[in-house]
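Q: What would this complex look like in 3D?
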Amino acid sequence: MTALTDDTLPITPRAMRDEMIVFGIMAVLLAIVPFTGIYPFFVMQALCFALVACAFNLLIGYGGLLSFGHAMFLGTAGYCAAHALKVWNLPPELGIVVGTAAACVLAIITGFVSIRRQGIYFSMITLALSQLLYFIYLQAPFTHGEDGIQGIPQGHLFGIFDLSKPTVLYYVVLAGFLAAFLLIYRTINSPFGEVLKSIRENEQRAISLGYKTDHYKWLAFVLSGTLAGFAGALKVFVAQNASLTDVHWSQSGEIVLMTLVGGLGTIFGPVVGAFIITGMQQYLASFGQWVTVIQGVIFVACVLLFRRGIVGEIAHFFRRSL
Amino acid sequence: MQALYAQLLVGLINGSFYALLSLGLAVIFGMLNIINFAHGALYMMGAFVAYFLLNNNVFSISYWGALIIAPVAVGIFGMILERTMLKFLTGLDHLYGLLLTFGLALIIQGVFQNYFGSSGLPYSIPDQLKGGMNLGFMFLPIYRGWVVIFSLIVCLATWFLIERTRLGAYLRAATENPTLVRAFGINVPRMITLTYGLGVGLAALAGVLSAPINQVRPLMGADLIIVVFAVVVIGGMGSIMGSIITGFALGVIEGLTKYFYPEASNTVVFVLMVLVLLVKPTGLTGRAA
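A: Here is my prediction, written as structure tokens for the whole assembly.
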């Protein structure tokens, strides 16, 4: 088994300093967006997908597990949050909690099933499970089938922040994204993250060293699914709807694509990839089905020509881990 | 009872497609170590080739011609893909094969969708197979019976080719240890290309068979391939006969579900997959992978 990334650089204080500098630049750039005239809706949407891609990357980049069903967490959290907000009339913060908790429960169950097989089978199982959920949501009455849940009230977060104002909503989404990003960053650099990486490199050896690798993989899966769900719950406030497209396999494919373009196993790659792919959809929307073709071409080009992805290539050039 | 038998027949037909597709996936995985995500797209291409052969201004080749030409044409297309792209993945993590073929599936399906939309094109049943016969307990449309029997013959022929012939012995040996087989003077890269062509050709054949039953649509293979993945997880990819039996069995179970509890007919294969994973994680016939 060849390693997915050649990210074997040790974590040195210098590397961490570099990463914190890049994180600072990213946070500042994102914070000034409302003053630049860039359409905030687009950036909010990209941030939500960036968070899903980061959560997905935690599994593939550090645990070596390629999930082809991450849309199920995005969609489940979206549906549950939307239902809580619209039907139960819960305040926004509880809506987010309900959505994220639903994704967490789903990840506990699906993780238990899917980590029973490795490698390629894991990908097929996650894909099949997400398709199972797709059909359930297609038939379940509370999702309103093809129409989806629409016209979701945004409300006041903690009773103070009026989420119907785009700028307020933007900073709330940004705060959620940055907090989750730091949590993922911390996880990667924790002893838990180190064990995950050792499982990616050589699972048999990790087992022989006494690690219960299944428990680590399960925990990583639950963490990844929960964070993807958190992004899905935030996305409800941005899009004000929850629909079947968020659970569809093509959505899972896009999450994979974002991470692949940015760089599997890089810290900032998924964010860059999410902005590129979301932007591409925004600006190429008039090309209809050709967008799918272009996505396919990017997949092929990434796999054949630059497997490290954009951030991975940059990091490799400067011999840093980013 | 009529309805039960009718659903059983539908189940057998779907089972034929599952068997043909999972058989191809297993053969390809054995030699190339790649899960061919483009399998559904190539199945769709088979159906479209049959459609083009019949509906064009120059010549009109019937169903029977398409049954041979479509698998060969799509098989050659697959071999070109293997020579120009897939062969560069040798030695890399298996996941890259999945990602590359997923990209290929998006390209193929996107191009077809762009020209033909998402609606279906009709493909009529050939004259020789029209009509039906009364079996006493049910009315059997001849075409549907033909699909089941013909698929079964093709599956068994493939099994015979791989398990009982000299060529198949080379193939199985190359799956186990390609370097050693190469040392005996056998051209393994060419065998890999031909294997991919064979697997893809089986998918295209399934596409031609399904054209008169399900309409010819650009996305006809997209959802099917996910079900076939679940079939592969249940059956495992270690045994050819295992793939065939699992494919047909799951088709029949799905058909029975359509009769007894139609709401679950879309999901029953996935639910079974979960149950098998909980009880026997290695799959019914497969080795641990």
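A: To summarize the key features: The CA atoms of residues 72 and 133 of chain A lie 7 Å apart. Residues 13-318 of chain A form a domain with the ABC transporter involved in vitamin B12 uptake, BtuC fold (CATH 1.10.3470).
Q: Very helpful, thank you.
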